[in-house]
Amino acid sequence: MNHDPREPYTANPMLDLPDEAKRILGAAREEEALGSYDRAIQLLTEALALSPANPYLLAKRGCSKLALERFEEALADFDASLALNPAAPVTLLFRAEAKEGIEDLEGALDDYRVSAELDPGNSLPHSASGMIFLFRKQYGLAREAFLSALDRDPDDSLALQGLDDLSVFK
Q1: 3-state helix, strand, coil in the chain (%, to 5)
Q2: CA angle centred on 109, ends 153 and 137, rounded to 5°
Q3: In the predicted model, what is the mean pLDDT of residues 38-63?
Q4: DSSP for 6-73?
Q5: What value does the mean pLDDT take over residues 42-68?
Q6: Under 8 Å CB-to-CB from 87, ≥6 apart: which residues?
């Protein structure tokens, strides 16, 4: 079953895949596990030909492009995925990382904020935001973000490292 791209995506994108696209997705995952991201991108593009409006496949291909630091291409896939499924906090996290790659820190912070709103228990949007604030020498905001991350996950290594780094600047 293919999704009408003019309508919001409400179904589970994994259940909406044709069998052949699922098979190709499995092969793409194997390639990613081997670090063969170019091959994974090729396979995911094949799967997208079978299910062109599937937000999961678009986001997955974006992740492979992100791993290769092809930030603009990754952003295009994440944007397309989020156009179909805007309430995808994990896709927002990856898009934020791609935005960091092109030095769009305000855009990254916006994506981290929305991701945190959609998935309030996840510490990563907070700790990643803290690292941006630390980079920008906004130490008060960095501390607040790291503490917020640790409220959600006391073992968040990024937040712990950020607080340690922050102590150097006091």
Answers
A1: 70, 0, 30
A2: 85
A3: 96
A4: TS---S-TTTTS-HHHHHHHHHHHHHHHTT-HHHHHHHHHHHHHHSTT-HHHHHHHHHHHHHTT-HHH
A5: 96
A6: 118
96 vs 55: CA distance, rounded Å: 17
Q: Looking at the 3D structure of the chain, how many domains does it have? A: 2
- Using the structure block, give the residue that is written with the tokens 């073992």: 155
In this prediction, residue 169 carries a pLDDT of 78
Q: Which residue type, as a one-letter code, is found at position 62?
A: G
pLDDT digits (tens, 9 = 90+) for 142-165: 999 999 999 999 999 999 999 999
**DSSP single-letter state for residue 2:** -
Residue-range definition of the domain harbouring residue 155: 89-170
Q: State whether 113 and 165 are in the same domain.
A: yes
Paired tokens of 13: 């994108």
- Domain match, 79 and 100 both: no
Residue of 89, 107, 95, 110 whose CA lies nearest to 152: 89
Residue 72 amino acid letter: E
